[in-house]
Amino acid sequence: MGVDDRFPDAGSDGHGLEDHLNAYATFLKANKGLSANTLRAYLADVDECLHILALRGVNDLREITPDDLRSWMAHESRTHARSSMARKVVAVRSFFSWAYDHGVIATDPAAALATPKIPAVLPTVLTKAQAARMMDDADAEAQGRDPTTHAGETVPKDNRPTAIRLRDAAMLETLYATGIRVAELVGLDMNDVDFSNRTMRVTGKGNKQRVVPFGAPAARALIRWIEEGRPQVLHGSDDGARAGDTRTALFLGVRGGRINQRVVREVVHRESRRAGVPDIGPHALRHSAATHLLDGGADLREVQEMLGHASLKTTQRYTHVSIEQLKARYTQAFPRA
């Protein structure tokens, strides 16, 4: 069922809600640089809001009032978490702001909508020792060591081909060394990596590019993968693998095409368990990298640039992690704590 089917009386000027949503989508694509997933989420949130209002008899954008939108928020908050509600309110506010700016409505009923406050949750991070253990273990496994967890529990024999071990070690080293997102990792191409000055070009949210550095351990792991592992994967790749990705992608799946995010997440979870550290995903490695950089004295704005955060406030979360760790160490070590 399309938007106009659900809102049969929407707009008496010949432009139904579907037309407005399509125009809004075009505006977002051209001006906001949103990812396809974010764009779909925004439009779905707006569509859902308008549908609920239509069920209550409000079918024309020009008739929607602040009270209508507050009623919608109250309805949605019964079944959605605050984080979801915050996203929905941002999407609806953005839509009505666009409608007002483009003369679709005479006043903006969403201008005064307050975004629900989300409780601050400290990100999960590894200690420096845990991160080093995880990286060292992955590197050793890439060289064929029979893996055993540090907790003393024997894990199933690792039957991964050598090429895949080299790839997995290189992915882990890259994630931790650069703090990049898993989506950014899978999007890396061969020509994005510059070994002469140990940097890589990363394409982040909103298709924005940045250059991030990486250290010697990541460089060694990447070189081993590119020179020894990647050719083996290509040699045994499936004919169905996409030729473009096979030629350009830095990290490949077992069939020769660009690796996907699910596989990367599986690798990080598996290797954290093997190393006997907390079971984490790729984003926790990003959190860990940021925290360890700040612990080591890195400037907050430099870390913001490296991580590709649009707001410094996002990066500042990691200073709270560092403070919490300091307080924990203080309590354990200081005699008058």
Brief rundown of the structure:
It comes from Bifidobacterium callitrichos. The chain has 337 residues and is mostly helical.
Describe the structure.
The protein is mostly helical. It has two domains: 3-101, DNA polymerase, domain 1; 128-333, hpI Integrase, Chain A (Orthogonal Bundle). It has helices at residues 3-6, 17-31, 36-55, 66-77, 82-101, 128-142, 162-178, 182-186, 216-235, 243-248, 261-274, 282-295, 300-307, 312-333, and strands spanning 193-194, 199-203, 209-213. A three-stranded antiparallel sheet has the order 1-2-3. Helix 7 crosses helix 12 (282-295). The longest helix is centred in the last third of the chain and has 22 residues, at 312-333. It is elongated. The model is unreliable at 1-15 (pLDDT under 50).
Overall CATH class of the largest domain:
Mainly Alpha
Number of domains: 2
User: CA-to-CA gap between the ends?
Assistant: 64 Å
Structural class, from secondary structure content? mainly alpha
The radius of gyration is: 24 Å
Strand order in the sheet with the most strands: 1-2-3
Q: What fraction, in percent, of the residue positions are helical?
A: 55-70%
Low-confidence stretches: 1-15
Question: Number of helical segments?
Answer: 14
Secondary structure tally: strands: 3
Shape: elongated
Instruction: Write the H/E string, N to C.
Output: HHHHHHHHEEEHHHHHH
Biggest beta-sheet profile:
3 strands, antiparallel
CATH fold-level name of the largest domain = hpI Integrase, Chain A
| Percent range for β-strand residues | under 5%
Family: Belongs to the 'phage' integrase family. XerC subfamily.
GO molecular function, one term: tyrosine-based site-specific recombinase activity
Keywords: Cell cycle, Cell division, Chromosome partition, Cytoplasm, DNA integration, DNA recombination, DNA-binding
Subunit structure: Forms a cyclic heterotetrameric complex composed of two molecules of XerC and two molecules of XerD.
